[in-house]
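Thread: "does anyone have the structure for this chain?"

Original post by V.I.:
We have the sequence but no experimental structure in hand. Need at least a predicted one for the grant figures.
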Amino acid sequence: MPNTLGTTNGLIVAQRTLETLLSQFPVLGLITTDFSSEVKRFGQQVVTRVVSPTTASDYDPANGYVSTPRAVVDVNVTINKHKHHTYDVNDQERSSTSRDLIQEWADTAAHALGAAMVNDLTALVTPANFNVAGQTSVITAANFNRTAVVGLRTALNKRFVPDVGRFLVLNSDYAGALADDTTVVANLYNRDANTISTGQLPPIHGFQIAEYSALPDNGINLTGFGGNKEALVIATRLPDLPSGDVPLGGTIDVVTEPNTGLSAQVRQWYNFQLGKEYRTITLMYGMSVNVGAPGRLQLITSA
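Reply from O.Q.:
Generated one for you, tokens below.
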């Protein structure tokens, strides 16, 4: 039975797109996120509040349990990126294929949107944005192993970077070298054989590991970076809708990934002359460095 291409089907495709996007690009779930279905104008600024770790207090016999002020940093993020993935299907394709178009469209849309978001995010990982003394570790791929990860951990610990929410993003050469470390492999085999079959590394020395094959050079031979989720911020919003008196030749809906709140706008319309149905999945976003926490990231470069 051929796939049907009604409104419900289109929303299912978009829902799967968001789920696939977050699965293909896990780094987007490892930093501070402000995902919202709120409509904003392009170029508008939003304020994302990042809660920093705090300290315990002594009990005060005179005043009892005195509240500790929360350390909240306001990070301004400009919504300056507007991306979309648009595809079409004609009447012949709709009636002649038995392929799983839902999954195919979800995969291609997810890769297109996810790659754009991660490329813009990783472009921020530069010495100009992260210039604390000792914030760059020079390590070759041949020497990137468990010991190197321990060194990154030590560098962050000495800067008192919280160990909650730590992550490590590596290019494919460095991720492969870490996965080939015999001490890591032996530990994984004894603890979780599924990791060997999937190739997905679990947390190592407190770092959640994510591989990104298209990590940019950024002019410094950048090969990876690790730190605390508060170092980088991404905010997403949706484009403004047409005014109420404008007749629409299709539908505009919103889909949301329930676990993260990541939302996208889905536009669907049909061209009778061409016999084609079009769908657009779109969202707007902005990225920012948390200038209130400049030491929260450790850059990795090759020799």
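V.I.: this helps a lot. The two ends are 56 Å apart (CA to CA).
O.Q.: and The mean pLDDT is 83.
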